[in-house]
Amino acid sequence: MATANSTWGYSRIQGELKGLGHRVARTTIASVLKENGIGPAPERPSSWRSFLRAHWGDAAAIDFFTTEVWTRSGLATYYVLFVIDRKSRRAHLAGVTRHPEEGFMAQVARNLADCMHGFLRLHKDLRLVSKLSGGPHGHQTATPLRSDSCSRSSPSVLIA
Known about the structure:
This protein is α/β, with parallel strands linked by helices. The protein is 28% helix and 27% strand. Helix 1 packs across helix 2 (26-35).
């Protein structure tokens, strides 16, 4: 398990073994890995590519682009928010606004994570990261968006 999942620490391996019906202490796992020349999770080789490969089905990308539109009052900038489901490669227009402020972003996040009709409804325990907090110039946050009735087994992350 440790070599196939280089980011898994002793607790994660212990939890996976418990799920398979084996009760093993963290110290036993640490000893066995050490005896076999496998170091702790932070010291095991991993890469961004291996992380993405492991989480490909649970990750989506989200970003803005802008477009200039002529209106009665002149040229106006509109922000277009879109999402791409990395697994299916489906794209979704999440919203268009002149002012991507917190209220707009919160509503888009709720729409995307809706249990019944949201674009990302099949993703597990959805957390929206980065852009959905404060618009195109916002700071990074991770906000769980599912209620208990929608929750699934492992977290999904939108990577902006």
